[in-house]
Structures are given as C-alpha cells and as structure tokens.
Design goal:
The protein has 123 residues and is an all-beta fold. The protein contains no helices and eleven strands. The termini are far apart.
Length: 123
C-alpha cells in the first residue's frame, strides 16, 4: 500500500488550502483514511478521518467547523479542505490508513502512512 500526499504550501492566516492523498496497492472499502499533523517540537496529532465505506467523518475539536474531509472512491483519493487557516495550523500533514476501524484518533492504530506535506500559515 502506498499513500501520496500533496497540496501543502504557504498561505496567509484566514486563507484556504486543499490537501489530497492518493492511495494505491489494495482495496480500501473497509479502511479509514486519516489526516494527522506534526508541528515543530510537538507530537503528531489527529486532525480528521473518514470511513471509506460510509463516508462518516470525525474531526479534532481544534479544526471542527474549519476543515472538511472527503473521499472519492473512484480514484482512491481523500481530501482535506482547510479554511480559515490559523498560524497554529502550521505543520507537516500526513495521511494514513487504519485497517481496524477503531482507535481512530491514535497514530498507533494506523498501518500505512504517506510522506507528509508541509502547510505554513503566516500571520
């Protein structure tokens, strides 16, 4: 299984970015796709996830109402639309796949990881 994340960049506070993650190498109908982020000097933290089959989405409180996760089964792509970005959203963002559909907010529960894409929000 391979995950390829893209879409990061530099944006001003209040702006928007859209991240994408393409998954390949397996069938993912029973998986959960998650997005995590890691800021300099901090631990990797949960951002959002979506169940591949039903499309149920879950968000960290810090991004609720600003970020939207979605999926496209046709091309095995999950996206993270990030609006109203804040400087504290600055981090490397990672997509990951969870095969077990539980412990969705925990990094240890994810089996495959993408390479990360840097998001920088300037004030």
């Amino acid at each position: 299984v391979q995950l390829q994340a893209s879409g990061g960049g530099l944006v001003q506070a209040g702006g928007s970015l859209r991240l994408s993650c393409v998954a390949s190498g397996s069938t993912f109908s029973s998986y959960v796709m998650g997005w995590f982020r890691q800021a300099p000097g901090k631990e990797r933290e949960f951002v959002a996830c979506i169940t591949w089959s039903a499309g149920s989405a879950y968000y960290a409180d810090s991004v609720k109402g600003r970020f939207t996760i979605s999926k496209n089964n046709a091309d095995n792509t999950a996206s993270l639309q990030m609006n109203s970005l804040k400087p504290e959203d600055t981090a490397v963002y990672y997509c990951a796949l969870n095969k077990r559909n539980y412990n969705l907010e925990y990094t240890f529960a994810y089996d495959y990881w993408g390479q990360g894409t840097l998001v920088t929000v300037s004030s």
